[in-house]
Amino acid sequence: MFGSLCKTYKEYFPIGAAVNSFSINTHKELIVNHFSGITPENQMKPQFVHPTEHLYDFEQGDIIADFAEENNLSLRGHTLIWHNQTPDWFFKDGGGPVSRSLALKRMKEHIYTVMGHYRGRTYAWDVVNEAVSDNAEEPVLRQAPWLAAIGDDYVEYAFRFAREADPAAKLYYNDYNECDPVKSRKIYDLVKSLIDRGIPVDGIGMQGHWNIYAPEPDKIRRAVELYASLGVSLQITELDISMFRFDDRTAYEKVHNELLELQAERYGEIFKLLREYRDLFTGVTFWGIADDDTWLSDFPVKGRRNWPLLFDDEHNPKKAFDSIVVF
Ligand code: HAH
């Protein structure tokens, strides 16, 4: 028998995992033994809860929220305003593009209804996901349907509506490539300008979709310190360690031992750093539970196996698990 991950980290920060409507059954034992919180991987995204203008569907999200309650797990909401997995109807009116005022009305109604539905159950929400562009030559905000429909101030409206909809929920700005020096500066600038103008942002979610080669701990450290200088709370919200660099299209049928060892080393050094910053982190969430169910086995290469998590296909702990529970 091996120790419990979240119990090991009790004095440091809560540890969560992304779940879906299947994994709460197929991975239940791992979830309840090792994690103290969950995030629905997909089931609270606009595509799922608000597929057409006059239809909200909370069935799958509710199953996950019930599971959280029955098993005493905290629940993070993910996500309200994003450029992906958001139906087109939000941005259309009749045959043409939506007007700014109608887009704002839809945004407000969406946030009020979804956060209102889960009020008292979700302790935090990723209010805006991935609004910042990756490219140094581009402005801070990426080209996105919400930006086109509303304008630069769409992010601040989202946070204002979110605070009104559920004053008790912690409100996060969440993004990936969050340790890249160019992008982290943009994320910092965005969140700083929101805070300076009194817009309610409680924290920054660093997704943590990393790989066995990058980012180096020093890069992570610099990003953590930059974000922490804003005085907001920090969470790692979607941690996984891919076996491939992002542009690498190699595929293996089985995972080699050297890769598993490298991954364990990476997990080990990352958690060492996170433990150092325990006062800043209010949560660390993995984007999945075991290697038999991970979005990375379909992204960025469809159908390519990946092994990014702490538990293997048989739900046994990997070396990566040992490297973070023994310190
Ligand atoms: C995340 N995007 C999303 O926040 C999450 O909702 C989804 O389930 C998986 C990953 C990450 C991402 C990336 O790492 C690289 C390019 C685009 C998006």
Explain this structure:
The chain is an alpha/beta fold and 327 residues long. The protein is 38% helix and 17% strand. It has twelve helices and eleven strands. The strands form two sheets. It has an eight-stranded parallel barrel, surrounded by five helices. Strands 4-5 form a two-stranded antiparallel ribbon. Helix 6 packs parallel to helix 8, helix 9 (181-196) runs parallel beside helix 10 and helix 11 (257-276) runs parallel beside helix 12 (319-325). The longest helix has 20 residues, at 257-276. The radius of gyration is 19 Å and the shape is globular. The structure holds ligand HAH. Ligand HAH binds at residues 41, 129, 176, 207, 209, 238, 295.
Describe the structure in brief.
The chain has helices spanning 5-8, 23-26, 28-34, 46-49, 59-70, 100-118, 145-150, 154-165, 181-196, 217-228, 257-276, 319-325, and strands spanning 15-19, 37-40, 74-81, 92-93, 96-97, 124-129, 170-175, 203-206, 209-211, 233-242, 281-286. With 327 residues, the protein is α/β, with parallel strands linked by helices.
Q: What's the total helix number?
A: 12
Percent helix: 25-40%
Strand count: 11
Counting helices, strands and paired strands, the structural category is: alpha/beta
Strand residue content: 15-25%
Order of helices and strands: HEHHEHHEEEHEHHEHEEHEHEH
Question: What would the principal axes of the Cα set say about the shape?
Answer: globular
Largest beta sheet: what is the strand line-up? 1-2-3-6-7-8-10-11
Hetero ligands: ligand HAH
